[in-house]
Amino acid sequence: MQKEGKVVPLAAAIDRGGRTPLPCLPVLLLQVRDKAALQLRQGLQDLFDNADDTLFEMADKAFDRYDQHLYFEAMRDLRLKRKSIERGFLDTFHDTFARIGQPDPLAHLAEPGSLRSKAQRERAAAMEGMVGRVLSRDGIALQQLGLRLQALLDRPLHEQHNPLGPAALCGYFLDAGRNLGVGLRVKLVLLKLFERYVLRDADILYADANQLLAAAGVLPELQPAPRRRAEDRRLRTRRGPLSQGQDVGADAAGQAYFASLQTLLAPLRGQFAPRLQAVAAAQPISTADLIRLLSHLQHYVPATHEADDFELGQQLEQLLLRVSVRSGTRRRIAVDDEDVINLIGLVFAFIQRDDNLPASLRALLARLHIPLLKVALLDKGLFSRASHPGRRLINEIAGAAIGWACGSEGLRDSLHLRVECTVQRLLNDFAEDTGLFVELLDEFLASNQEERRRNELLEQRTRDAEEGRARALQARHQVQQVLNQRLRGRVLPLVVVQMLVQAWSQVLQLAWLKQGEASQGWRDALQTVDALLASITPGHEPQALLQQVPGLLKALRDGLASVALDSAATREFFLQLEQLHLHACAGTELPAGHDKPFAEVLVDEDIVLAMPEEPACAPLQFADGQAATLQHVQRLRIGSWVEVMDDGEPLRCKLVAHVGSHDRLVFANRTGMKVREWNSTALAQALHRGDVRMLDDGLLFERALEAVLDGLRQPWVQ
């Protein structure tokens, strides 16, 4: 059969037997298909949006590195193939619909039962469980859909051949993910996510399809199956507006606090929204009417990328003129309301100037001017309560986004999109129900919690790596010290010196790192060094040496084995050590023929062990003002943010580790990845030059309000 390439409207019914395939689909069936495809596409997008977090959490909980690597590789593979899987799913969905009513439209998805591997059997068992749960919940709606499809097609349609059945949907997903390079465990996880984000809304899928067919006259007499859940959960859970009995904004503490500020705000009256002529004769509009005017303006707030010629005072003045003309009475804003407008205006003016925030965040927060103004008009507790949801939402958004990349790359990350969605939701939906701020705050905290935990985990790994590196450096210095104490200034066989510096130093470092300087393992490793040096010193009593050598050789072999020294090199060393012991017993000079293997060397320089390159910074001489900068750097806390002025776009990073023993300050970006490293001196110098600046990551609303009030208290404010 030639695969359908175009959709052609049904001109006439083809009545040549129920087994004759249709050349095209009925228009009504195409409508069912397309509506279902939209919902399935949304479900798949939700699946992939959450798969990354799920796999990361599993990697975090994994006990061994192999499992961690497995999940991290799965995350990478899923990101790369996400689009192709979505496209493959929908292509298979459309292809199956095109062959609906044929003998076995899903045969290409089936696996021969006899040829199934263990992995395939486990996957099939998981699928059967998923399908069973959907059928137990939504079986009635699915049966009704099957009956309507049979009536529309005028031919039998078995339940397993329904292209919207749960088995078919699972088949599309497995078929689309066939080339996904992940193991069985990850595939089972993805199936679980498919059930959670796609199959969970099967009742809506079936109800919409049944409703569409019934409205078109296909078996309208069938009683609709009971819906498992409301179509709009948000409307169900949304808090209703505050009742009059609650006296909106009657927080006594908030009212009292705001009243104490009005003396400071008095000089600003008439500046933000100029009053009409004959003010005395003008009637103030009520707060409720003012809020309605603001709600009207709220829908015209320009987007962040548009030219901002939206000036709130001017817009309000124009609306007041219209109200005055229509009512025939001059209207003005009440004094208390004008004070609120002025105070909120100053707070947002501070936010727009605050360069501690990324420019993209300032642009987004500026769009919340009107919603937050309405909150302040309704509830003066915004100014006095740190726990106020409007205040907390601003603070949480600013705190989460302080480390945003300032360029265009940061505009499409998940956090930026969440903030954008939150802002747009307030502009679209906020009227007078301040409970929406509570709802959005809860949603933002919940969505941000996983990202914050992930970032903290990566920061901890960075911190552990840096501390491990510092301990390794400390161990190296300690081993260098003890070797120099024992070898410096002595003439020793070259083979012994090389073994101690190149191999036994590793044994010493391992003992110091694992067990510590006070451990028996560290003392035993040092004792072995002393015993080795003593054993090759000429003049030994043969009997005494013979008693010491077996224990020495065993200690040497065990230690070298622990650092996996090459067996050939080990064997060669012990052969030469045997000759040295014979020479020590004889107390004579080495024969001429053995000069090369037993060459001696004077250790006249400090031993320096090989180590990856360390960051270094020469000490700097500071003037008094610069020394204060150094003291400020030394008081930095973990979590402090800085902005680095690179040649390109500014880089924001925070202090995640301060390795005191080596005076190293390690900074990571918002995702926990190490991006910069300084010692205290170098960072102080960079701060003094202006290459780096400290960021104030304190609570945004509190900083803004405090700065505004400090400004109003200055004597020059008129």
Key structural traits:
718 residues; mainly alpha; 4 domains; two-stranded parallel sheet; 24 helices; 60% helix; flat; disordered N terminus
Structural overview:
The chain has 718 residues and is mainly alpha-helical. It has four domains: 27-225, no CATH class; 259-273 and 282-303 and 310-433, no CATH class; 489-602, no CATH class; 615-697, SH3 type barrels (Roll), CATH 2.30.30.140. 60% of the residues lie in helices and 5% in strands. The strands form three sheets. A five-stranded antiparallel sheet has the order 8-7-6-5-9. It has a two-stranded parallel sheet with strand order 1-2. Strand 7 (664-668) and strand 8 (674-678) form a beta hairpin. Helix 9 runs antiparallel to helix 13 and helix 15 packs parallel to helix 17. The longest helix has 53 residues, at 435-487. The chain is flat and about 120 Å long.
Topology:
Elements: H1 27-61, H2 65-98, H3 118-153, H4 166-176, H5 184-197, H6 202-215, H7 233-237, H8 252-265, E1 283-285, H9 287-298, H10 312-327, E2 331-333, H11 335-353, H12 359-366, H13 369-378, H14 381-384, H15 389-401, H16 414-429, H17 435-487, E3 491-493, H18 494-515, H19 520-535, H20 542-562, H21 567-586, E4 600-602, H22 624-634, E5 641-644, E6 651-659, E7 664-668, E8 674-678, H23 680-689, E9 692-694, H24 700-713
Parallel strand pairs: 1-2
Antiparallel strand pairs: 3-4, 5-6, 5-9, 6-7, 7-8
Helix pairs in contact: 1-2, 1-5, 1-6, 1-17, 2-4, 3-5, 3-6, 9-13, 11-12, 11-13, 11-24, 15-17, 16-17, 17-18, 18-19, 19-20, 20-21, 22-23
